Amino acid sequence: MTDLSLVPAGAGAGKTYLIQKTLGEWVESGEVAPGRILAVTFTEAAAAEMRDRVRGELMARGRLQAALEIDRAYVGTIHALGQRLLTEHTFAAGRSPESRLLSEPERGLLIRLEMSGCAALKPLMEDLGRFGYAWNHVTQSSAEDDFCADLLRTVDLIRGLGARGRSPEILADALAALTAGYGEVAPDGAALTATLKSAVRALLGAFPDSLAPMFAESKTVRDAFAKDHQCLRKASHPGTLERDWALWQKLRKLRLSNSRSKTPEGYDALAQAVIDAAGQLPRHPGPLTDARAHLTALVTGAQQVLDAYEDAKRRAGLIDYADMIAEAEALLRTRPEILEAVLGEIDCVVIDEFQDTNPVQFALLWRLARGAKRALIVGDTKQSIMGFQGADPRLADALQAAHPHATTPLDRNWRSDPLIMAMVNALGPTLFDAYVPLTPQREATGETALEVLHLPGGRKDTTADCIANRVAELLEAGTQVYDKATEAMRPARPRDVAVLTYTHAKASAAAAALEAHGIPVRVQQDGWLSSLAMRAARAAMTLVADPDDVNAALTWLTLGPPRVPLEDALRNAVDGVLATHVSLLPLRALNEEVAVRPVAETLAHVLRAGALRDWAAGLAQPAQALADLSRLEAEAREFDAMVQDLRAAAGFHGAGVQVFLGWIAHQDAKDWDCHPDPDGWSSSGVEICTWHAAKGREWPITLVAGLDQKIAERPGTLQAEFDGFDDLDNVLDHAGLGYLPNFAASESQDPFTEARRPEDERDAARKLYVALTRARDRLILVMPRERTTPRDHAERMVDLLRDRAGFDTSEEALNVTGQSFATRVSEGIADEPAQPVQIAAETYPRIGIPRNLPDIPRTPWRRSPSTFREVEPVPARPLETTRLSDGVAETRTGSATERGTAWHLAFRVLVERPDLTDRIAAATGLPDGAITQIGRQAEALTGWLSERGYDKLHFELPLQETAADGSETNAILDCLAEGPGGLLILDHKSGPCPDPDARFADYRPQLDAYAAMVRAKWPGKPLRGIAIHWMSEGTVTLAEARIEESA
To answer: Is the pTM of this model over 0.70?
Structure first.
């Protein structure tokens, strides 16, 4: 490498401008050919902006031909770079030339499938409660959800370590650190447990009832004794104290007598014995043993799951985003000739946002940068806040430390008002060890630039209302902001204002408060599936798939475009004429083509036939409604392209409209139900986003909320650790894992928390820096009160500002490190508006002429064997009908379809789980007599099958077959009987059957289709026969398979 430039660039320092100018100079000097530029950033939008700005720079320099050639350069995201390398060197990478990118739902599902068969995870999955997993009332997530989330995070973490992540050494080092940090343990944990058990028994023996009723006059005391009694009762259960360490900690804090609440004589002594016995928790080896088991299962399980996951992807020709990086890094590391070939095609490497690289991304990019003729690496570790994605700012810091002479920081700020930058520059040295102050380049606006909004005290969180009232005041007062386009001051508009919250939940609360004032907002909110546009579209799709669905018809008529009054629609339903309503006819007509259209195409016809887009354009928020429908179309296309085995493994068999609707309704990804953004990068409303989402953005007026966010990392987390940064060329070889456990005893937990605190505070400092540098004209700090409880270190973001920089507004100015800054200081007003204000409906222009979709000949997209018809006569097979027992005579249970479903379920339960017989009536609505009759048939039929050598039964077996023309046949077998000699298909029929031979012939196309699919699925097992069980008759008809068919 002949020319390396490392550029730390603070917020608003003009790093993109620097890249633009540097590349322009390189191309103009002839050092770099425009088509031989390799420039990498982390988002598609940033890559597009970089390409446009470099092209504009070359045009401004009169290099028109070079500007045209810039399209031949590689300017893109790091993932696109990895994909390009793997595509150009497909066979060297061991990849399919046509690998398909996994969607996020597919990725999550495939990993979960591999989890279910992972031996290393079984100890964890069999007893989640022991390892701290339980129902979370805040997030409404189950123990299983939280465990899966932990494992997925661990998978992502070890993938970010490249090949090193698969090494058993990373676990060994983490376990050693865990054991060393825990300290000495008693040699016999069982003895400590026995002592506590004895003390608990003694206390409950003397005081079996709660003392709570004795203290009715004091709720606090009463509740404390009630909780103590609950803990004691729980501790008395067998096996509890051997595993529930949080309960031990609670028993250490039993309430005793004091001057105002006297316990009965003898209670305190017995309770103290419990406290003393539970006080041995820090010496007990059990918590350490469980923590080691938890860590071992997570890491080893993640490694095993990842191995199986990658094998499954390769077999299916699939790839995900992490593969693009990890495999490209391995390719360049292990194949020097390929690295040399890649470097031979480029004249320079430019990397933007370098601080956001995780270890494997760093290894890939640095390998390219250090081998190139010249490299420009730009980033700012003060803005590295993507740790949850694996970003590690220590790597960029270490690179700058290793190359001090190549490091040239930018020292000017082009974004913020001089007063804002003066405050940030005063704060910076208190947050960072090496802070480079930025000289503001803007002229002062003369308006208020700094503002502190003090939140009221009290337990109620009034942040959202205080923010909404202040924003309303700013807009009503015509607060002046600088317009970059006109280069003049003007009154602020809603789109000029941003509210930064730390969490999505707080963002939603702020949005609701602003909307109550009639202020339009832009925020990523939940509710996509339940939005009006989606409810109407889903009802329309359901109606197309099943024209007899009354609920879908009512939903469409009353909520959708027809807008039929609910009373009228219900009256039509009661009168039995709902199906003839004129507004249902266009949708019902589409049912005929459902079988020959992919879901996405069916949806397109539904949107057109139901005039859903025109209707959505007239709703209160048309842009959002149209965006919701567009996302539905995108999900339908993803669904059509999805690997069918993944859908089936999740319980969604087939690929029809109803399966698609079930699929989207049952996704549980974190942001699945969020509305799509209808505006892109522009919006007419106040933007509300998290601190993380604000990175790289700027607004004239920025309100920073979330300063009450806790700093400490969540216990139970893993992160990458390194034994040093002296060998950056092979940094992954020095990677390991750090673990922050979650011990119940503070004496055990505190050493780990204290060791982690410096990094937690460094992380908080970076987040604060990002949040405080987004404002151009006015920065408003939404300041929480200081807590009354004494503290010995910073617990919240605001504590860091007060402790390190002396943030104070006692003199109606903001004091930072002893410097006073002119600031508007006010008390937040938490009053809600007397009457919510309706937001004026926005208009939405429609462009283009609507046209009907072309109708062209089609191949059936998917078919069900039950729809097959006989094309030409086939010689009849000899049939054998056998009576099993009396037929089922019950006919009261709903329609014929509902009755058949109930009978099938009862039959299956009676065969597979006879111990659940007493639950059948409640589950199916069948009378006891019918259940008895079905039970006799189940006994007789299983005996009949056993006599023929079929000792294993598979119920409700899904099958799918794809023909050469691309059409799919989906089926669910009622029962497949299996024995050593072969297979037999058994189909249940609940209708009357006076002539079994004739009825069997009617069903033969369906049964022949079943037979073909079974033979394809189990080529090594001969199909010996096909049978129909006539439940109404109590008989079974068997057709033996022909010899040539069985062969």
So the answer is: yes
